[in-house]
Design brief:
- By secondary structure, the protein is of the alpha/beta class.
- Helices cover 26% and strands 25% of the residues.
- It has a single domain, classed as Rossmann fold, CATH 3.40.50.
- It has 7 helices and 12 strands.
- The strands form 2 sheets. It has a 7-stranded mixed beta sheet, with helices on both faces. A 5-stranded mixed beta sheet has the order 2-1-3-4-5, with helices on one face.
- The protein starts with a strand and ends with a strand.
């Protein structure tokens, strides 16, 4: 089991510690926090980057940002690609959960979401945010989805959603992405196993596989079954 170091001068919240210890050996380190690493302060978990500053996830805040929005699923490119409908019980596997923003949007669409994140620091932030959000419709697992294939035997998802890191397009070279994305790129780097992920999804038994791309990015495979375009992203659907 991987060791997760968290720098803090106070004891970790017991609920957070217990949640993290399901997946990691948690080591609390006292003293001055490092320039880069996980920090627990004021009852909240942060990731500190020496170059970019600190980030933390807040699912309650994300949920509140959708509060006054009335989404029509038949007009939402992501919902259409994933096959989410008001009358259907949709269960989506978000296999690159990242900051959880898309996962919270999918909850707003009415879907149940199981999120996976292979970067340990990002996964810890997600687990902390999910604990504070306290929704029975959202579950987070550290690691890659293919490491949790036993879950397919108990609750097969209706679709798999894959959002690999891709370069930003259509912006001036001098315009940097916002801090959160900068930290993400520093943490996780590029996704170099897209073909491997595609082959795993194809063999998973799940019929619907959706890949998020930049509007002008090349497709993961030559011929998606369908494409759904939004203002800043495109969703390529593969039916197996």
């Amino acid at each position: 089991m991987m060791t997760l170091k968290i720098y803090s001068d106070s004891e970790l919240d017991q609920g957070l510690k217990s949640n993290l210890e399901k997946f990691y050996n948690v080591e609390r380190v006292e003293g001055d926090p490092p320039l880069t690493g996980l920090i627990y302060r004021g009852g909240k978990l942060f990731y500190s980057s020496s170059e970019r500053g600190e980030i933390a996830f807040d699912f309650n805040q994300l949920w509140a940002s959708h509060f006054n929005k009335n989404y029509h699923l038949n007009k939402e490119p992501l919902a259409k690609a994933l096959g989410i409908k008001p009358s259907a019980d949709s269960h989506i596997w978000d296999i690159t959960c990242g900051s959880g923003k898309d996962a919270i949007l999918l909850l707003k669409f009415g879907a149940k979401v199981t999120g996976f994140e292979r970067n340990p620091s990002v996964a810890a932030l997600l687990l902390s945010a999910a604990m504070n959000f306290n929704s029975s419709s959202l579950t987070i697992y550290p690691g890659e989805a293919k490491q949790h294939c036993e879950l397919l035997n108990t609750a097969t998802p209706s679709a798999i959603y894959y959002d690999p890191m891709y370069p930003e397009e259509g912006k001036k070279k001098s315009a940097l992405p916002r801090k959160e994305m900068q930290v993400f790129r520093e943490l996780v780097g590029k996704d170099l196993d897209e073909e491997e992920v595609y082959q795993w999804a194809k063999q998973s038994g799940v019929k619907r596989f959706v890949v998020k791309r930049g509007v002008k990015s090349p497709t993961l495979r030559a011929k998606p079954s369908a494409q759904y375009k939004g203002k800043s992203a495109r969703y390529d659907l593969y039916i197996f």
